[in-house]
Amino acid sequence: MQGKSIRMQGFMNKKSECTRIIVGIDWDHHPLGKPETWPPSLVTTLSILLNSKFPMFLFWGKEHYCFYNDAYKPSLGNAGKHPDAIGKKAKEVWPEIWDIIYPQIKQVMEGGEATWHEDMLLPIFRNNKIEDVYWTYSYSPVFEEKGNVTGVFVTCTETTAKVHSEKELIKLAKALRAKALKLQESENKYKMLFQNSPLPKFMYDLETLHILDVNDAALEKYGYSKTEFLSLDMIALRPATEVAYFMSMVKKLRAGKPISSYGPILHKKKNGNVFTVEVNLHKNIYNGKEAVIKVITDITEKQVYENKLKQLNESLIKSNRELQQFASITAHDLQEPLRMISNFTGLLEKKYSEKLDEKALQYIYFAKDGATRMQHLIADILEYARLDGHAAVFELVNIDEIINQVLEDLKHRIKKTKAVINYPGVNVNLMGNTNLLYRLFLNLISNALKFVSNDTNPVVSISLKDKDKFWQFAITDNGIGIAAEDQPKLFIAFNRLHSRESFEGSGLGLATCKKIVEQHHGKIWVESEEGKGTTFYINFQKISA
């Protein structure tokens, strides 16, 4: 018995926590019995295991009782199987991976050959949860004295960190490959767009201004070969008069100021011909240096067209001014003879009415009426001409005050026609011209009172809607309406939809309204159905906050 005790001392490592746990177990009531009765093969194996600094584990006997050393303990976690696993059956200790490790243990126990497993995933319970843990380990047979396999000796290393690192490296490598592929695709796309662009393109060094690359469109436009281009700098493409301006742009780019486009400027071809261009550009990095990519648009024809258009516009303005002056002078000069016709016709009627027959009096009436209508027409023409001839002074105006003034000036007509006016008031301020806006609402409300059937009392509704960025006015009547085919020509000057016998007027009222609205940067339109009334809509911009 004393010999056995001395033999047991051989595997005892008094500094080992696992040794102390083994010693403290009540082996008297354990199926393995007291350590003094353990076979030499178990004692020897435990001696190796407990005195090693390498992680080791032992499954012993038919029930695969578990032993391990201090080096293995960290792999069990802070809250898991340690220390209760020592001396327990493997099936009880490792229920979460028993279906994985049992076939491996059985293979060694029955075949007597060692196994090797590298970076194998074994999800074990530790740190109060199931964790994915990777191991590299070997199962080796432990033979008893008679030569039978009675245990499985495990040497192992946890490789979880290594596997995760490798996975991250693989993931990173894939990402880098994908990025490289994307960059390659982007570069190929850029080269394709650069080379195949119908517009001339250049790339030049921002520091030296040396041309680094050009596309085929540039070769064709400027007349240089690619070799010749690559020996030039960007100054060579400009007439002497344009160099200073170009260098000012370069200075801004070098200072980091954003420039996306500039022009019109002049460029020079190889043969010396000069043409007008606009330039679009963006900075880039080429071989580690700052570069600029330029896109050139030839606007020579556009510039010629714009100059011609400018000349035509100036000519049109001059002609329009002369026409307005002519209309104003002519209308003014016509007023005096018309007044004479009207006055003398009136005197003729007053002095000789008793001596003239009914036919003569009718002729006098026609003359007076024609003169009066001509005077009204001339007044309307003068008003219409002045809208283009003079810049209106804009100020803050209150629309409610203007509309109320219009209704006050029309009160006798409203009373005479027994009209109903629905106007709740609109406390809205606009930037506008008081006189022009007065004429606008006077014309529209007068029309609403005028264009009704003889047996109908006018009903006019004036309303306002808030349309986010503008105010929308609506003037609705119950009048005779406007046929759909007549609506497109409604705002054309001198366009009359009805005879003078039916409704008086010069045909300039709505054309004047349109001009007034346009001068206020607004919009006017009509919605109507014949026999069912009309609504005129006007949009005015709100005052910016």
Proportion of residues in helical segments = 40-55%
Which sheet architecture does the biggest sheet show? 5 strands, antiparallel
Strand tally, please?
A: 19
Number of helices: 15
Low-pLDDT stretches are: 1-7, 498-503
Shape descriptor reads elongated
- The whole-angstrom Rg is 52 Å
**Biggest β-sheet: strands ordered side by side in the sheet:** 2-1-7-6-3
Distance between the termini: 106 Å
Report the sheet-strand fraction. Answer: 15-25%
Instruction: Specify the structural class.
Output: alpha+beta
Describe the oligomeric state of these chains in a short phrase. Answer: single chain
The average pLDDT score comes to 82
Written description of the protein model:
This protein has 545 residues and is of the alpha+beta class. Helices cover 43% and strands 22% of the residues. The chain is built from 15 helices and 19 strands. The strands form five sheets. It has a five-stranded antiparallel sheet with strand order 2-1-7-6-3, with helices on both faces. Helix 11 runs parallel beside helix 15 and helix 14 runs antiparallel to helix 15. The N and C termini lie far apart (106 Å).
Note the topology.
Layout lengths: L1 H7 L8 H8 L15 H11 L5 E5 L4 E4 L21 H4 L4 H14 L3 E7 L2 E3 L2 E3 L2 E10 L5 E10 L1 H37 L4 E5 L5 E4 L1 H7 L3 H4 L13 H12 L6 E8 L5 E13 L2 E10 L1 H53 L5 H32 L5 E4 H11 L1 H6 L3 E3 L6 E4 L1 H17 L8 E8 L3 E7 L32 H11 L3 E6 L5 E8 L4
